[in-house]
């Protein structure tokens, strides 16, 4: 085979691989848009197999793994944990491939946060530091990243509302919980996420949760009603809407 023919063949194969990865990514994006996380995961895994150095494919695999895990968490916690562990691995690979991408750092924060829920107090507090670090980095790279503001808001809320036992454990192990967390800061970050994308029911639910802690019930009621009224844009929105309805009935009558 001549050199030119060989080069041409290699270029053709490379082009076919890229096209195959693009097709798989497009199918994954379409499945994700229709809230079919299992199908999205399958397509994104195909994209990674075809283009193993594509950071976008890796972070979308990580996102899909986390979402599939969340959907089965109550029914099969062991499998969910395994999916979260795979999600963290995929997210770390995405960050390694694209360290200047806000999306890769955001997904790593998301994946680590999901996995942390399965850990004991010692590991959970340690992982919380990584969640904050990755969310901060995502915002540094893209100040308009609504998801990063939201997850950082969740970090502030969760750390600020730790129970006394967890705080005591953190004090023994680390000398205290990670500093600077507050419900007020959480509320500000949720509000910022909503400013960036007001269509997400989950953002309004978590903002309302923080507002209730701050005794701002009238504002919380408004946010819960928005959560209920907005159209579904994410697979978990029906659960958010149900929780918002319950909070209105139980806490804000």
Q: What layout of secondary structure does this protein have?
A:
Elements: H1 3-33, H2 37-50, H3 55-72, H4 77-97, H5 102-116, H6 121-141, H7 146-160, H8 164-174, H9 183-196, H10 201-213, H11 217-229, H12 237-251
Q: Could you walk me through the main structural features you see in this protein, from its secondary elements to its overall organization?
A:
This protein is mainly α. It has a domain at 1-118: Alpha Horseshoe (Serine Threonine Protein Phosphatase 5, Tetratricopeptide repeat), CATH 1.25.40.10. It has helices spanning 3-33, 37-50, 55-72, 77-97, 102-116, 121-141, 146-160, 164-174, 183-196, 201-213, 217-229, 237-251. The model is unreliable at 9-14 (pLDDT under 50).
C-alpha termini separation: 79 Å
**Biggest sheet overview:** none
CATH homologous superfamily annotation of the domain at 1-118: Tetratricopeptide repeat domain
Approximately how much helix is present in the residues?
A: over 70%
The number of distinct β-strands equals 0
Cα-atom radius of gyration: 20 Å
CATH topology category name of the domain at 1-118: Serine Threonine Protein Phosphatase 5, Tetratricopeptide repeat
Briefly, what CATH class of the domain at 1-118?
Mainly Alpha
| Backbone shape | globular
CATH architecture of the domain at 1-118: Alpha Horseshoe
Low-confidence stretches: 9-14
Strand percentage: under 5%
Q: Helix/strand-derived class? A: mainly alpha
| Succession of helices and strands | HHHHHHHHHHHH
Q: What is the helix tally? A: 12
């Amino acid at each position: 085979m001549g050199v030119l023919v060989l080069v041409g063949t290699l270029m053709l194969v490379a082009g076919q691989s890229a096209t195959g990865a693009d097709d798989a990514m497009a199918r994954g994006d379409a499945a994700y848009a229709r809230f079919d996380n299992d199908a999205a995961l399958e397509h994104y895994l195909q994209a990674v197999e075809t283009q193993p150095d594509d950071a976008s494919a890796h972070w979308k695999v990580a996102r899909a793994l986390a979402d599939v895990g969340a959907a089965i968490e109550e029914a099969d916690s062991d499998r969910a944990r395994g999916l979260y562990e795979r999600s963290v691995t995929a997210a770390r690979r995405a960050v390694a491939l694209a360290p200047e991408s806000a999306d890769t750092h955001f997904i790593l924060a998301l994946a680590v946060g999901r996995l942390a829920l399965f850990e004991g107090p010692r590991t959970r507090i340690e992982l919380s530091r990584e969640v904050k670090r990755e969310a901060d980095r995502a915002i540094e790279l893209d100040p308009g990243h609504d998801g990063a503001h939201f997850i950082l808001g969740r970090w502030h809320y969760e750390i600020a509302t730790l129970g006394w036992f967890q705080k005591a454990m953190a004090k023994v192990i680390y000398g205290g919980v990670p500093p600077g967390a507050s419900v007020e800061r959480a509320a500000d970050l949720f509000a910022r996420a909503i400013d960036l994308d007001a269509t997400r029911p989950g953002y309004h639910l978590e903002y309302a949760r923080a507002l209730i802690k701050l005794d701002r019930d009238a504002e919380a009621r408004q946010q819960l009603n928005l959560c209920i009224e907005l159209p579904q844009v994410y697979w978990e929105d029906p659960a958010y809407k149900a929780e918002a309805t319950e909070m209105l009935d139980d806490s804000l009558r």
